[in-house]
Design goal:
It contains 11 helices and 10 strands. The protein is α/β, with parallel strands linked by helices. The protein folds into 2 domains: 11-79 and 202-224, Response regulator (Rossmann fold); 83-199 and 234-261, Rossmann fold (3-Layer(aba) Sandwich). The strands form 2 sheets. It has a 7-stranded mixed β-sheet with strand order 5-4-6-7-8-9-10, with helices on both faces. The protein has a 3-stranded parallel β-sheet with strand order 1-2-3. The radius of gyration is 19 Å and the shape is elongated. It starts with 10 loop residues before the first helix and ends with a strand.
Length: 262
Amino acid sequence: MIEHRGSGMNEERRVEAIAEFVRLNVTVIVTGPNTFIDEVRRATSTIPIVMAYGADPIGRGYATSLARPGGNVTGLSWDVAPQVFGKYIELLTELSPRPSRIAGLVDPRYPHEHYWKEAASASKDRGAELQYVEVLASADVSKAFDAIVAKRANAVLIFGGPYLYTYRDQIVNLALHMRVPTMFMYREGPESGGLMSYGSNLRESWRLAARYVDQIIKGAKPADLPIEQPTKFELVINLKTAKGLGLTIPPSLLLRADQVIE
């Protein structure tokens, strides 16, 4: 029997749902990302927790090692090497016209320091300026784009975090209105009308999480199940959006894309 609860980004409803799972003494709880994992961990140290995606599992205290987590948390890590953020800058600066000022949309509650350092270094190397723009709530998105316009940024790089993921439609709509290209970490960005994404497939992560659930139901301990890291990164380009923004996507970039949305 599967118990499912949806709470969106409502923390109160989410905490209530987690408390209910604990009262029901479920066999395993599947969740993600870090914000939700942390809340489940505060509620139980005994019920197995499977991450569909979680960043920095060792640094966050979820596991003592990826090979042998050692606690009640295992699953899939959404960690990317900081160098991947250099790749985002590289991809953005291949566009024509080439952006010279790139706004980095950041949720400071989500780990970003190492990623920011790499993106800033790559921007400098490629003759672009990376500009910090903070978003903490849905109401901040329009303010962020006011800042982006004021800073005269001509591209936007969206950093990680569940809130920025949830706000992607707002981000895309404002970016299209203000005619700036966007780079996301997840394919749902360009699927919503953003320009590009480069990263692991979150839907595939949920599918892979089911393997962990199966093993735990059959008696495996989460402490002994290695945490998996992403091995495949997909480049998705929305060509319709590019045309609407008056951008040229070089053929060399299109050839590298795993999916082109037309």
